[in-house]
Design brief:
This protein is α+β, with helices and mostly antiparallel strands and 82 residues long. The chain has 2 helices and 3 strands, in the order E-E-E-H-H.
Length: 82
């Protein structure tokens, strides 16, 4: 292999949000994940609502903003017609 073109391959830790730590090797020393095999619903058999970064809330905020804009457009359209 050529020198100085390949990344360093070091011991790494994969850290889950549940606190589980997995030792492996990678080009990054630490990898943080939201779900691992210990807390994943498929492996545990329990249902769990996972909302990463508030995706549902962000969508609902966009919907409210869009509906307000559509209502404003409709109000402007009615005023112009009169």
């Amino acid at each position: 292999m050529r020198d100085k073109i390949h990344p360093k391959y070091v011991d790494a830790e994969i850290r889950c949000a549940c606190g589980n730590v997995i030792k492996t090797r990678s080009t990054r020393p630490t990898i943080v994940v939201g779900i691992c095999n210990v807390c994943h619903p498929f492996f545990t058999g329990q249902q769990k609502f996972v909302d990463t970064a508030g995706r549902v809330d962000k969508f609902q905020q966009r919907m409210v903003k869009t509906q307000a804009a559509q209502a404003a457009q409709a109000a402007l359209g009615k005023k112009k017609r009169k």
